[in-house]
Amino acid sequence: MPPAWNARNFIIRLSLLRERVEDWRCYPFSIPAIAALDELALDRPVTFLIGENGTGKSTLLEAIAMGCGLNPEGGSKNFRFSTRASHSSLSAHLRLTRSPKRPRDSYFLRAESYFNVATEIEALDREPSPGPPIINSYGGRSLHEQSHGESFFALFMERFGGNGLYLLDEPEAALSPTRQLAFLARLHDLVGTGAQFIIATHSPILMAYPDAVIFQMTPDGPQEIAYTETEHYTVTRNFLLRTGPMLDTLLAPAPDREAN
Q1: What number does CATH give the domain 4-229?
Q2: H helices within 68-200, ranges in order?
Q3: What pLDDT does 32 receive?
Q4: Would you tell me which of 90, 152, 185, 232 could form a disulfide with 204, CB atoms 3.0–4.6 Å apart?
Q5: Is the peptide bond before 210 cis (omega within 30 degrees of 0)?
Q6: What SS3 state is found at 61?
Q7: Which residues are within 8 A (CB) of 192 and not within 5 positions of it... i.e. 6 or more apart?
Q8: Are strands 196-200 and 164-169 parallel, antiparallel or unpaired?
Q9: How far apart are CA 239 and CA 22, in angstroms?
Q10: Distance between terminal CA atoms of the chain?
Q11: Judging by DSSP bridges, how do beta strands 46-50 and 94-98 pair with one another?
Q12: Domain extents for the chain?
């Protein structure tokens, strides 16, 4: 019997269609974690993708977003702008297994291109439309007139309406630690409405969310890992508990400087 969480998720599994890959030496299949990917069960309401820079977590998240019909630069299904075609071909090699349930809402956040989303909203709102301005869904205030963190928070608090599929790439990028804690509370509220989240992150605060599954991108593919076993947790914990000694070690003169 499949896990109980599957009944409430929109995407319950993803598979790499390995027979479609023509050249494993080409990007993104040259990334070890992508090359080793077989199947990934998405059986929790919140899934975290973690790993060092360059391990493929954002590439995989982008491919999932494109497979769901979302714009690779971010936004909802209504966004079709493109400032630079930099997305990979991975989405054409993925199979997403969906449940019969359909999301009422869906959104892809890319921290690096959220500025472009804000610009597109203003451009669309300048065009004649019988409906209300798009910016009303974000709280009614131009995202360019807010700080990066404020505009992110407006997205989470105003635009995300629940019972939706939300794919977030490093949402902590513009958030203070306090705002990250507030985001956790908002995420929990949205999970209560039936929302599903897939999040690529470096934040040990966000990945502490209970009932989440954490997949670390490794040369053997995405591997499930316990929160307290992640490098993010252990490094942060050790630094906070041993700040002085760790700073002494990190800031000690390099051997070649001592020699001079």
Answers
A1: 3.40.50.300
A2: 114-126, 148-154, 177-192
A3: 97
A4: 232
A5: no
A6: helix
A7: none
A8: parallel
A9: 45
A10: 67
A11: unpaired
A12: 4-229
74-119 pLDDT, tens digit per residue, is: 887 876 655 555 567 899 999 999 999 899 999 999 877 677 778 8
Q: Report the alpha-carbon distance of residue 239 to residue 237 in Å, rounded.
A: 5
**pLDDT beneath 50, residues of the chain:** 1-5, 257, 260
- CA pair distance 44, 177, nearest whole angstrom: 25
Which residue carries 């090359």 as its tokens?
35
| Distance in angstroms (rounded) separating the CA atoms of residues 143 and 172 | 17
50 and 57 Cβ atoms separated by less than 8 Å? yes
Q: What are the tokens at 63?
A: 């491919």
Copy the structure tokens of residue 8.
């409430």
Nearest to 53 by CA among 31, 75, 38: 31
Q: What are phi and psi of 42, to 5 degrees?
A: -110, 75
Place of tokens 């897939």: 198
Give me the residue label for tokens 């992640």: 230
pTM of the model: 0.89
In a 3-state reduction of DSSP, which class is residue 161?
A: coil
Task: Kindly give the interhelix angle for 243-250 and 231-241, rounded to the nearest 10 degrees.
Answer: 100
3-state secondary structure of 173: helix
The DSSP 8-state label assigned to residue 75 in this structure reads B
Helices of type H across the chain:
32-35, 57-67, 114-126, 148-154, 177-192, 231-241, 243-250, 255-259
